[in-house]
Write a structure and sequence with these properties.
The complex is a heterodimer of chains A (149) and B (140).
Chain A: H1 2-20, H2 26-33, H3 42-61, H4 83-99, H5 103-108, H6 115-138
Helix pairs in contact in A: 2-4
Chain B: H1 6-27, H2 33-38, H3 48-69, H4 80-96, H5 103-110, H6 114-138
């Protein structure tokens, strides 16, 4: 119960951060990516501010043996940099650059009621669902990206 | 650079960092939005409730700011066919690459994860290249 409340609160603070920093606006994000145009570096400070706070707070947090209300910290275990990681990030980069929305802001932007945001979120959910299947289809050699050991 | 908004960017970023800290400290989970959503699509795990509530909060936080300040204004400069393609690529890419701007760009970099640093450099570079080509060379 309290865990669900924490998730709701964390989501709300996240959404507030996206609104305050205007990252919910696709044109603002595209202005950051538009290095050849009228460049707007704001996104570097959004990410920089978020990383600064998390960098310090994560360190303090992970000194504890476990989370306040859960049995363990669930952190990624994969360490390998492979084609799947870079390829996926590149595919996402094309989508991000085309529209100016990434997953968090896309969800927050739904509150504006624009049909564009709704179309984007539906397409994104379809992409999230079919991603693994597409990967299996295109992977000529089976799983070359399994971490050694 | 006339649209540069350093103060609100830093405050907004700080709030995002605070959010990620709460989720990690209380629930032991990382605030990666694509990962939180991926856990809701079919074939995913069963811990749906916290994910749904995080997303409800994501909308609620932005809605509260919009109600209080009337902003920010948002706008798109592409039509729905490009939006469909962009949405599909965003979903596919973040699922295959195991993260987006929040999971890799914020939480991963804060953990100094080499995977996240490479992923973030990749999607920022490809995003910039995409804007360069689509906006300045093709012109849509």
């Amino acid at each position: 119960m309290i865990r669900n409340l924490a998730a709701l609160g964390a989501g709300a603070i996240f959404g507030l951060g996206l609104a305050v920093s205007e990252m919910v606006n696709p044109l603002k994000v595209k202005a950051f990516l538009d290095v050849a145009g009228d460049w707007d570096p704001s996104l570097t400070l959004v990410m920089g501010g978020a990383v600064m706070v998390s960098f310090i707070a994560f360190r303090l947090t992970l000194r504890r043996p476990k989370p306040i209300l859960a049995t363990r910290f669930e952190l990624p275990t994969r360490r390998n940099i492979d084609r799947r990681l870079v390829g996926g990030a590149a595919v996402f980069g094309v989508g991000w650059g085309l529209v100016g929305l990434c997953p968090g802001p896309a969800l927050s932007a739904l509150i504006y009621g624009d049909v564009e945001s709704a179309i984007f979120v539906v397409a994104m959910l379809i992409g999230l669902a079919v991603g693994p299947r597409l990967l299996a289809m295109f992977a000529a050699s089976p799983a070359p990206d399994v971490a050694p050991g | 650079m006339e649209d540069f908004t350093p103060v609100s960017a830093l405050i907004g970023g700080g709030l995002i960092g605070l959010s990620a800290t709460i989720l990690l400290a209380v629930n032991g989970r990382l605030a990666g939005v694509s990962g939180i959503m991926a856990g809701l699509v079919p074939s995913a795990r069963d811990d749906a409730m916290w994910r749904i509530l995080f997303i409800v909060g994501l909308l609620g936080g932005a809605a509260a700011w919009l109600l209080v300040t009337g902003g920010p204004v948002i706008a798109f400069d592409v039509g729905w066919p490009v939006i469909v393609i962009g949405g599909l690529l965003t979903g596919i890419g973040t699922r295959i690459g195991a993260g987006c701007t929040s999971g890799h760009g914020v939480c991963g970099i804060a953990r100094l994860s080499p995977r996240s640093i490479v992923a973030t450099a990749t999607f920022v570079a490809v995003g910039a290249l995409t804007v360069l080509i689509s906006r300045h060379m093709i012109g849509f």
